[in-house]
Each structure stands twice: as structure tokens, then as C-alpha cells.
Amino acid sequence: MDHLVEQIEDGSERIICIKLKVKPKPILLICAYMPCNGSKQANTHFKECLDQLHEIITKYSDTCTPVLCGDWNCDLMKSSKKLARSIWMEEFINSKKLAFKPTPLTFIHPNGNESSTIDYIFVHSNLADKVNNTIRLDMLPNNTSDHYPLLTEIEIEMDSGKEKDKNFTSNKIKWDKIDLLQYQECLTKSLQENIIDFENDPTAITKLMDTIIATQESIVPTSKKSSQRSKHIWNDEIENSLKTNKKALYEWKMEGKPQIGETMQVRKRTKKQLRKARRQEIARQRDESLQTIMNAKQRDSKIFHKLVNAQRKSKRNGISDLCVEDKTYSTREEILQGWNEHFSKLATPETTDLKSDTNKKFDIDIIEEICKENAEPLVFTSEEVDKAINQLNTNKAPDIYGITAEHIRYGGDALLQGVTAIINNICKEASVPDCLKHGILTPIFKNKGLSTDAKNYRGITVLPIIGKILEILLRQLIRDIIDILQNRLQRGFTPGVSPLYSALILLESIAESMDQKLPIFVALLDAKAAFDVVNHDSLHRKLFLSGVGGTLWLLIRQLSTYAITSIKWNGLISNPFPVHQGVRQGGILSTELYKVYINDILDQLENSGLGSYIGNIYCGSPTCADDVALVANSPSDLQSMISTVENYSIQEKYKLQPTKSLVLKNVPSTRNTDFEFEINNTAMLQPSSALHIGIKHSSDLKKTINIHIEGNISKARRTMYSLMGAGLHGKNGLNPITCLHIFQIYILPVLIYGLDILLPDKKHIEPLEVFYRKAMKQILSLPNNTADAAVYTMTGVIPIQGTIHKAVINIYNKICGMESSIEKELAERQLLMSGFNSQSWFSKARCILAQYNLPSAHDLMLNPINANRWKTQVKKAVDSVWHDQLRTKVSLYSSLNYLSTNNILWRNTHPCLASVGTSSQDISRLQTKLKLLTGTYYLQSNKASFNQNSVDPTCLLCKESAETVDHFLLESNQRTRQYHSFNCHTPSLHQGTFYGKTSLRNRRNYSLQHRECWRCGKPTNTKEDIFFCKCGVVQSVNSLSYFEIMSLDDSFDVDTAVLSQKYKELQKLLHPDKHTLKSEEEKILFEEQSSLVNKAYSTLVKPLNRALYMLEQAGHPIEEQNSDVDQEFLMEIMEINEDIADADSPESLKPIEIINKKRLDDNISQVSKAFQEGDITAAKQLVIKLKYFTNIDDKIKDIYRGQF
User: Which residues form the Reverse transcriptase domain (predicted)?
Assistant: First the structure.
């Protein structure tokens, strides 16, 4: 089964993922160990793990079906008094469509009772019908854990791996590697040799496109794709190793497959060499990809973003099933047919009112006659056409004819003249050829809901390039007309206006109601497939009434008449279907036309006088494209507004969805709130919060801020996890400068999205600052106790609050320059009427301007400043204030005496960071440098200051003076400096203390001499009986070591027979059942003593546990992710594990067991010697190896128990 299992790199120390290649869709098996309760940050760590799981499942949602198992540390079976983590877990399960079978109690409390169910196996709903009952395995003799294992059987079909989908995708042209001059010359020559009559030849457009494609193919010949699977991990060394291994395998088979002998050894050696070569190539490719990203960051930003995005995304092979209403499609061809049915249905209007349709047709016929009578030919110059061509986005998918923007842009003057002639001929005839109306629609997942449901996709259409050029030219003509008529509350698709301004108007209405202590009701309406169901006749009628007529109206109508679309999916293209309704998403004119289509309802609402007002300024319907929010101060007004929009939707034949349209309300407690709102005769939901323009709104502004900040942190955390594949982690990834650059570009915008509109205060913003600082410390590989001021100084950035303030000030200046806008009218009104304690955004912006000594809000209103000049001024003012605060804070930390703050004056990263190159050696050395600069490098003087025991601050090597930073860097003599660094200070990185040979014995004498009886208060310094005072009362032994508890010398060499005898004696003496008549205090102490004796025995009886405990007692614990292991040794261990996996009989496993047993015994002897000599560095390295040898020994024993 090895070929069916693939390890996934995503995960962490708490999450491990593997991929099982099964049919019909691979399974992503995720094993998780969630953080326990108890610490202050437990819930934060729990949410971090949930976010990481969310990102992993989302990343592989298209290619795998998730199955999650593990210790979740929350009880989902309790029906009452659920903890917060249980609620978060249920929300996560519901959002990812997971299910689980009820299970009995799985956790055993230390008192021996089964207490809770915290272990689960979750499967995706797609697999729910293939899962048998989950059972608890009670009787497992090898289970020493306090959890019961769970077993679930899932019916799956193994993937043979023989059937492979063919790749139908076309080769993408790399224009940056093409000789553009040669392409231009060849195309010009072809056009001169094959003259096309652009005015009279009806096939002129087709001939021109054929000429372009023929020229491209002559310059860039299409290469045939190999039918063989590409070998991503391959080089000459792997090829040679594979040949050698095959030869050795052949010779071994020819000898009859002997289990011992020369051919068997040769086969093993060649297999190891092959695996080693492949691992080295994988590591080389990974380092090369990281190096490419770091180099691109300095040279080419476009390539940098492309590489980062490629690393953070999974390889999406497309969905394996598609659900369209009640039908399910499975094969590639069937899925394409399903897409065709879904989008063709959207493009076909429902006939509901035949009379109304007939009247609209009649109106359109009359309008068409009027426009033809008044039609004047439009003529565009080659300069105007060239300008339109340059507005086309490059590096995009080709149209149905294989033409991209680059084909036209790099074609030269001859092609420009030809395109100009075609467009002018179209305008002259006022007729658009059918070949320019054929689009390619690609379904794009909306990142919400099931990826197999067609409703969760939007169709993006790629139109013919020449048709796009025509639309750009027409857009310039209609935009001036539309901008004049556009309702001021429409903030979507408006040049120079952010969609968030719609949220600003809504929040300003809520703030005004809070200031005036008025009730407020907000309805967020959702239209079903708003862009796809626009009625063409109604749209063209509105367009004519807006003032667009003559040839311009005829051309716009022609673009949608007899338009057709084909579906492109997974390399296949469907047959075309007619488009009878909708504005195609991806079209140049689509956004402008939709604004015309929806403008009437916004005017109706404003003219009705219904809705919220701020002073005399109407704010009742802030809108962004098709997202309409209705705001009113009374329920009756809001219901009337909803009914108005409902009637308009019926008239224009689009549907409002009652299940997705919501109402938020904030009503004083003295008023009646029992009011039901209806839409389409269905009651609307009234949740406590709802999403609008990316902001999770609540009627209470303070609640909105809290909810939104929590959501932003979660999204930013998930974005960080998605970027780990690109190298965004501290130690072995990209260099910190590149990581910081990625963080500022990809994560920071997610973290602060919408906060420049919400304007949180310092209390609300603190969780953001905590996340921001923690992320910076992780990138710099600094411990959590690093001073915050040091982090900001090193990175050259300012706190989140300063970043938000910059955005607020820039938005305010922009609003001041927006003449006749509703935002500017609100600013003028609120600055005059609102006090400094007002919730108004403009009142808070006024205070922020004063905080940084910038021009007053009133002065900016009268004289707005140029945007670029203002941004420079704001950056300088805001940065100066925060940098002054940082320099002051740095001066207050004694640990930061060596940290220069000059880089803050230069507004740059610290030279220590800026000087780091892109090599792995430079990155690994940086950690020590940063710790020295920030005072977190743990020296002997630090140990003396913070250790509860008496520790000598003198350097352990030179014995000359206290080991401070000065001594470490300057005062140690040249002869001992090298040894100083490796022998003395490397262990210090683990922030522990080693006391030498007599340390544990001295500690024992100290702890025994400083114990007092908790009842009589007398010293209990007797060594004969450490569990009882002379007064007969039992004593606590928590402060004693395991050696002291078991009355053993502090030595690695333990007589296990003596230890076992002592264990039995102590359990007989201290077992709680023998002291049931004692006081409650003594009962508790007996339970503690019995538990400690158990722990002491289980720790000291095994060499590995004993060694780990001694290292921990000496202040040098081995971390879980310890990387101080020889790479050759690790490769050797990996090869041993591979040999174990390859073993198919006890006889083939026996030699491995014998060799490992010998190495294990030798290692234990070496560990003993190192502890006897007090060589903690050597002991630590040996114990790390001991862990590996012990694991191998345990694995072999487990295999024997399984009896193959």
C-alpha cells in the first residue's frame, strides 16, 4: 500500500496530514492534537489550530475528501454548559460539512473514572453513508494512554494508479521569451502579402485572426506534449542509481531471492543510494524554489507574486462530481454537460408576464427605429484605438479564437490600422458581427459552500479581443452620461471610489442613531444571480431613457443580440448556447450597464422619503453594485422600503432570496421589538450579525468592531498558514526581509481590512497588536518574551494603530476632494454638528488629524491636498510620532542597551536584518545575532538573575568574570573564544542551566534541608523518611526529585531490581485506600504521593525516560522539534525505517533488530559515561540518538506483536 499513501507537507507539530489515493476521490487524512485547557492562551492556541485546519481543508477541497481524527480536547456530546471551544468546534464542523458518529466516553480522569468524550473521527458528508459505526477499543493491553482508541471503517476502493486523465490544456505563450520584433515584422509582412478588404469583405475579421494565429505559430511552434508522466524529481544521479538498483534487483532474483548473502546486501545498498539521491534532489529543488522567490523579490515584483501564489496553492485537478439541481455528473464530459445546462438555464429568461414582455418588445422596436433615424457614424482614430488596446489586461486567457491582448499590442502599425478599420466599419454599419459575440465562460468557485454544487460558482466570460477593444471605446462615450445620472448612494464600480464607502455611509447612519438614541433597522438584501438575469429589453430601454441613443445605443444592443457562450472546463469546450439575458461577467461594459439597470430602484427609494437621514442628507440605501442595504429608523419605513424593492424585482424579473436577505436591528429596551419583516411573503431572518461588503455588521457599532476584528485575525492567521508553503516561517524558510515583505503584502491587508472605516479604539485594537507582534517574532525566530519595542525597531514598522490612522487620514483627504459626493456632505455636516465624544467617523478622523499635528479637518475640507503629496506628508508625520515613542521605550529596557534605533530615523529595517543574504547559512546565523541584540540570548548572568536557586554568574569556561554580553563578545580571550561559542553558549540557547557532576546531589541536600511540616511547622530534614514528619503527619513531596522520592543516588546507572522493590514498598505504604480515615488534607496528600511515585517509577525504570528527566532537571530539556541532529545520522535512521517497512517476514526483520539492539546498548553506555563526566553537551546529543534507537526497537516489537 505504500504507493497509495503520500505524506503532505502541510501541518505543524500538532497536525499531521497524509493523502490516501482511493476512488473516486483521494482521502486527506488529518490527525490533530488540540491544545488542552489550563493556560491563559489555551483558547487562542485552540483557535489557531482550527484556523490551520480550515486552511488545509480549503486548500485540498477540490482534490481530496477530508477525514479528521485525533484528540480534540473538547466534549461535543454534552448538551448543556458548553465551553467556548465546543461552540467553535461545532461551527467549524458545520462550515466544513463534517459529520461524526456518537461515541462513548474516551478520556480517563486521573482518578480512574471515565469522564468525557474528547476523541472523535470526523468524515466529510460525502463519505457519511460509507462509514460504519465508530467503536471504542477497550481491551488493548498495549494502551498505556489515558484515552481509549477509536475505530471506524470506511468503505473505499483502492486506486490502481493505471487510469490517468489526459491533459487537454493548451500551451500558454510566454511573450517575455518571444522575439517581439520578429513577430511584428512577420505579421506586417503577412498582412502586406495577403491584403484584406476590411470594409467590404464579411470574413475580414476571421481572416485577420487566422493571420495572427499563423504568424504566432511560425514564431512559436506548438510543441507536442509527451504522453508519459513527467518526472518532477529526477536528475542524472537518480537515473544512474535507479539503473544500478534494477541491476542489483535482477541479480538478487536470479539467485532465488536469498534473505542473506552478497546479492541481498548489494540490493539494500543500491536501494538506500536511490532513496538518498531522491531525497537530496527534493531538498535541492525546495531550496532552489525559495532562492528564486528571494531573488525575484529584489528584481521583479511580478515574478515574485507569481512564485508566492504558486507555492501557497494546491494543485487543483478539478472536481470529480458536479451537482446541478437534482442531477449528479461524474465524468469530465458529463461535468461539462452539467455546466452547460446550469449556465444555459441562467441565460434563458423565465416567461412570467407575456403582456409585459410584449410591451417591452414594442418599446424596443420603437427605440430602435428612433436610433436608426438619428444615427451618426462613430469614427475612432488609430491613436484612440491604440490607447484602448493598451488598457487591455495582459497575461490573461485567450479568447475562443486563441487571441490574447499581447497578439494585438505587439502586432505593430499594420495590425493597428487593420483593427481600426474593422472597428470603424462596425460603427459605420451599426452592426456587430456574430464572431465577436462568442464568449468562453469559465466557472469560478466562490469559496463558500460545497465545491460540487453548481450554485456556488460564478461564470467569468472571456470575450473576443477585438470586441473588447470596441467595448472600451464605447465605455468612454457612455461613462460621462451614466456618471451624471448615477445615484449618489451607488458606490460600486465607480472610478476613484472604494466599495468600502458604502459601509462608511451605513456605519455613519448607525453611529448617528446611537448618538441620538434612536432605534435603527438595517435590511441586507440578496438577489439571486443578479448579473446573470438582467433583462435585455428592460436594460436597453433604461439605457435609452438615460440619454444614450443613436449609433451608440444600436452598438450596445447589437453586442447582446444573438450572443452565444461556450463553457470551458478542465481543457474541454462545450457546444455554444444562446445568451438571452444577463450582463456577462468579464465584459468591459457589464459593470456600467448593471449600474444603469439598478439605478431606478435607488432613485425610487430616495424620492419616496423612506429611510434614514443624517440631518437633511438621505442615507437610506447605501449600495455597492448588487449589494443593497436599506436603513430606516422605524420598522414600518423599512418594511415599505423592502416592499418597494420587492415590487421592482418582480417588474424586472430577478429574484430576491428570503433565506439570504437579513434584517439587523438595534432598539432601546423601552421600545417594542416584536416586528416581523417579510419579503416575497416569507419572514426574513433577524440574526445578531451579518456580512456586508466584507464587514460583519451588527446594529451595535461596538459589537461590530469586536466581531470584525476577531474575524480579521482568523483570516490573517489562515493566510499565514497558506503561505508557509512559500517559505513564510522563521528558521528554514525565506530570509526575514522577504518574509516581512510577504507579510506586509499578503497578510497585513487582510488583518486591517475595514478597520479604517470602523475605527477601533486602543482597547479593541489590542488583540490585533498581539497577533501582529507575535507574527513578527515568529518571522524573526525570536522568543515570545522579546520586548515589543525591539520587534518594531528591528523590522522598521509601526504598530497596527498607526497603520490604520494613516489609512483614515488618507481617506478623509480623498473625501474632501470628492465634490458633490454624499461623503463630503456628511463630512461637512458632522464636523459642524458632532461633538468630540460622538461615534461619527468624521468626528474621530478630526481627532486623529490633531493627534499628529496635521492640518485641521476644516482646513482640508476647504483646501484638499494632492493625493501623492498628502500621503508623503502623512507618512512622515505618523511615523515620526510612533518612532519617537519606540525610541523612548527602547531606552527604558536595560536588555536593549545594544540595540541601535538609528534605523528608525531612516525609516528602514535594522542593519542586522538588512545585511542578511539569501543563503541558508546567513539565515541560520541571524537568530543568534537577533537574540544578542534584543537581550534574549540566555547567558550565565541571566541564569543567575532569574533562577530560583543560587547560580554563579561566572562564565563556566574561562572562570574569569561574569558571563555578560560584553564578556561573551569582547572580553573572552582569543584562545578560548571558539570553545566559548560552542561549548559554553550553544547550550545556553535552550535557556537551561547545567550544574555539573554534583548539581543534582547538591540540589537534593538543599531541598531536603529546607522543608517544613505543614501542620507543626518544624523542619522535616530526616533523610530516612521523607514522606512523614516526626509528628506523624504526611508531607508533600512535590518539591523533591524522582531520585529523592525513590531514595536513589542522582545517577544515570540505576539498579532496576532495587527500584522495583522500592516502588512496591512505597505503593504499599502510601496507597490512598490504606488511609481512608485520615483528614481530607492528608487524603489529598496521599493521592499526590501515590501519583508521584507512579510517575517516578515509570520515568526512572527506562533508560530513555531517565535520561530525558536528568537533562530536564539539569536545565537542558530536549525540545520536540530539536534540529541539532547530524543529517547523516537522520538519513541512516530513515533508511532503517524503510528497511523495516520493506521487511515481509520475521527472518528479514531479525538482522535489523540485532544490529539496533547492539547500537542501543552501546548508546546507553555512552550516555552513562557522559553523565558521569558532567559533559551535558555530549549527553544531550547521545540522548537524542537514544530516542531514535528506542523508537526503532519499539516499532520492531509492535510488528512482532502484529505477527505480520
Answer: 425-728
Domain ranges in the chain are 5-158, 180-219, 240-311, 463-535+581-690, 703-908, 920-969, 1012-1101, 1127-1202
Whether the Cβ atoms of residue 1122 and residue 1104 lie closer than 8 Å to each other: no
Is the Cβ–Cβ distance between 422 and 206 less than 8 Å?
A: no
DSSP state of 973: -
Quote the cell numbers at residue 646: 420587492
CB-CB contact of 72 with 50 (8 Å): no
Q: Are 1192 and 1159 in contact (CB under 8 A)?
A: no
Looking at residues 610-635, what average pLDDT do you find? Answer: 94
In whole angstroms, what is the distance from residue 966 CA to residue 953 CA? 13
Pairing, β 438-445 against β 564-569: parallel
Range 593-608 average pLDDT: 95
Task: Take residue 838 and report the three cell numbers written for it.
Answer: 460622538
Of 493, 703, 704, 503, nearest to 619 by C-alpha is 503
Topology of domain 1127-1202, per CATH? Monooxygenase (1.20.1280)
Q: Is the distance from CB of 345 to CB of 455 less than 8 angstroms?
A: no
Residues 6+ apart with CB under 8 A from 6: 18, 19, 21
Q: What is the CA angle 103-107-108, rounded to 5?
A: 135
Mean pLDDT to the nearest integer, 470-474: 96
Dig out the grid coordinates for 392 from the structure: 487591455
Q: Which three cell numbers stand for residue 791?
A: 520587534
How many Å apart are CA 722 and CA 641, to the nearest integer?
Answer: 43
Residues 33 and 72: beta-carbon distance below 8 Å:
no
pLDDT higher than 90, residue 848: yes
Torsion angles phi and psi, residue 1066, rounded to 5: -65, -40
Tell me the sheet residues that pair with 1019. 1012
Helix axes 788-795, 762-780, angle to 10 degrees: 70
Contacts of 507 (CB under 8 A, 6+ apart): 697, 701, 704, 757, 758, 841
- CATH number given to 463-535+581-690: 3.30.70
Cα-only R_g, the chain:
36
Predicted confidence (pLDDT) per residue in 691-745, tens digit: 999 998 886 767 889 999 999 999 999 888 888 777 776 666 788 888 888 899 8
Predicted TM-score (pTM) of this structure: 0.74
Considering only 427-441, 624-638, 713-727, 937-951, which range has the smallest mean pLDDT? Answer: 937-951
Whole-angstrom distance, CA of residue 1167 vs CA of residue 1177: 11
Pairing relation of β-strands 564-569 and 577-578?
Answer: antiparallel
1012-1101 fold: Helix Hairpins (1.10.287)
Number of H helices, E strands in the chain: 43, 29
- Cβ atoms within 10 Å, residue 663: 25
Of the ranges 258-262, 852-856, 990-994, which one carries the lowest mean pLDDT score? 990-994
* Closest C-alpha among 1035, 1128, 613 to residue 825: 613
* Sheet of strand 623-624, all strands in order from the earlier edge strand to the far edge: 623-624, 627-632, 520-525, 662-666
> 665, 673 in Cβ contact below 8 A?
yes
* Helical segments of 838-993, H only: 841-851, 857-862, 867-892, 902-906, 911-914, 920-934, 940-946, 965-966, 974-979
980 pLDDT band, cuts 50/70/90, is very low
What are the start-end ranges of the E strands in 541-639?
Answer: 564-569, 572-573, 577-578, 613-614, 617-618, 623-624, 627-632
Residue with cell 499590442: 409
SS3 annotation, 819-831:
CCCHHHHHHHHHH
Residue closest to 1170 by CA, chosen among 997, 940, 990: 997
Q: Provide the 8-state DSSP code for 400.
A: T
The CATH number assigned to the domain with range 5-158 reads 3.60.10.10
* CB 37, CB 27: distance < 8 Å: no
Measured distance CA(614)–CA(838) in Å, rounded: 14
